[in-house]
Design a protein that fits this description.
This protein is an all-beta fold and 718 residues long. Among the domains are: 2-29 and 607-714, Jelly Rolls, CATH 2.60.120; 92-185, Elongation Factor Tu (Ef-tu), domain 3, CATH 2.40.30.20; 194-289, no CATH class. The chain has one helix and 69 strands. The strands form 18 sheets. Strands 2, 3, 58, 63, 64, 65 and 67 form a seven-stranded mixed β-sheet that branches. Strands 6, 7, 52, 53, 55, 56 and 57 form a seven-stranded mixed β-sheet that branches. Strand 48 (503-507) and strand 49 form a beta hairpin. The radius of gyration is 29 Å and the shape is globular.
Amino acid sequence: MLQKINFLPGFNKQLTETQAEGQWVDGDNVRFRYNTPEKIGGWQQLGENKLTGAARAMHHIVNKSGNKFSIIGTNRILYAYTGGVFYDIHPIRATTTLTSAFSTTNGSAVVTITFSSDHNLAAGDIILLDNFSTITNSNFGASDFNDNKFMVTSVPSSTTITITMPSTEGGSGASTSGGIRVQSYYSVGPAGQLPGFGWSLGQWGGTVSGEATTSLNGGINASTTTIVLTDATLFPSSGTSFIQIGNEEISYTGISGNTLTGVTRGVRNTTAASHSNADTVTNSTDYVAWGEAASGDLVIDPGMWSIDNFGDKVIALIHNGQVFEWDSNASNATSNRATIISGAPTASRDMIVSTPDRHLVFFGTETTIGDSSTQDQMFIRFSDQENINSYTPTATNTAGTQRLADGSRIVGAVRGRDAIYVWTDTALFTMRFIGPPFTFGFTQVGTNCGLIGQNAAVEVDGAAYWFSENGFFKYAGNLETLTCLVEDFVYNNLNTTASQLINAGLNNLFGEITWFYCTENSTVIDRCVTYNYQESVPARPIWTTGTLDRTTWQDSSVFGKPHATDYDASSNASYDVVGNTDGCTIYYQHETGTDQVTSTAVTAVTANIQSGDFDITRTQGGLADTRGDGEFLMKVRRFVPDFLSQTGNTQVTLNLRNYPNSTQASSALGPFTVTSSTTKVDTRARARAVSLKIANTGSSQNWKLGGFRLDIQPDGRR
């Protein structure tokens, strides 16, 4: 007898496949619309080039002239995308003119550049070379350096760096060169999140509290007492302080520039040792030894941005660093670079523009403007209204400050319909404009619901949704815990030391919020979990999981389609930086076509969905036999496919098993290929329990499932 197979929308991975009868349990690249599963839309590369590094922030803006821009911040460079072209708008930290600064060696691709004073560069930083004249005894010429960007390969000393050319030196080796100008980019940070906690951070039985880290600017041996850091701004500059390099503790009494003074090696029962250039240096002044109370882990955050716009001005903050502005409506905007906002804080965790009142707000920022050593992870500072250069409160302006009380650090903030939502690691606050004299009112509206990562929250239709260490939450006037039917699947395989990489993307075309995250053994984003906020109801929340990996996501409000970035850590073939070792980012437009389309290839977007097991209950005299529920085997003689829409072929698989713990096996005749004209398929399958899998594997294939019918008959107990 033909039986219609109906399944509840969404995945349920909180049950076994046997328990999840009448439900979908797994799949990839699928969504639910009107409670029915379908393949998601395809995506197409925007621009022909790959960007340097991992994109960590994206913001869309339409200026008053009607020009559309996408601002993309990677861990190395800030880009503006418009008209199908990427433009480098990254701010310049320092400009230095050198002479006779290049040296090379025959057979080597390494070029050493010597500065006349401290360069304050670190491995991985970006430099731009121009105004190059000549180089002698080398097959490299001016065209190899002029107007080219390079990634710093190493920092042998405070006055030398190396870069790596695409080819080796064929000449005898340059020892002199003409003049050249070196423009150093502001450093953003590493591509990934680096854990540093437990036994690996402190000495035996101890830990280090605080998050101030930098790197060695030049290698040292066991007796060296001149220690130069890449950036000492966040390190104590007076009194006896301590740093940790590897397993060695080192004390110092002062700082001159980036050089530690009054250095004593191998303190706190450690042994002086040699350390290499660019090794991590940690402020261990608050080291907690064995037997003492310890709290907190140390994690080195990835290179991140916070990007917003103040009218036509793009505001871009480097995470724990400085803030910049870029005028999108300038006549030559794409030829200009972002510049420092004068008067603004110089070290902040996050930033947002408050609208419609138009204040620039900094989170986890300085208590003393311009002194990065005063950065307070729980401190908020906001500008005067309509003035992003004024932050000192007076009787006649609306600038001000506020320190939050619940938590150890502000993690992130999102602008909502009538408030700014501010999360610490433990709590949620609302920040509402109330006007003078207080400007903003702050209210704690949630506890034990902190944000897991800076970009792990979105706001839509007056409600905030976020990913916490304690589950998924919603706030729309009241704090709600979202019932998640895939929760254990996500949390049991989550890399918690890469939580800052988690990012939430809103797709209002389909009422979806997707969180992209790293699984347990991955340091790059490799999975996603999606909540359908439009079609979910309390009795049936709609969740799906998948393998789509996106480092940023921007909704369709400006460009009409969602935009997103994909990070490829295995490829360094960016278009604009010589010697890149930080991977590449590809920029995509989503919900277009059926396939993945890049500048070089068209690849199928494969999708599938699988049900839980269903069995048969034999009836006797019109009444259900209580001995059913898997007691009887069944014959599945055929199925009648039903698709609301179908392009190309679809694969249908019947997975069979006789006991819950036995391995599923595909029916002998399957999988079955179904076309748009297929009326029925003979299966001749036999088992106690059967599950259904719908999939596509080829390009230009698309499908939306209807109501399948199976011809099922009881077939005894043995």
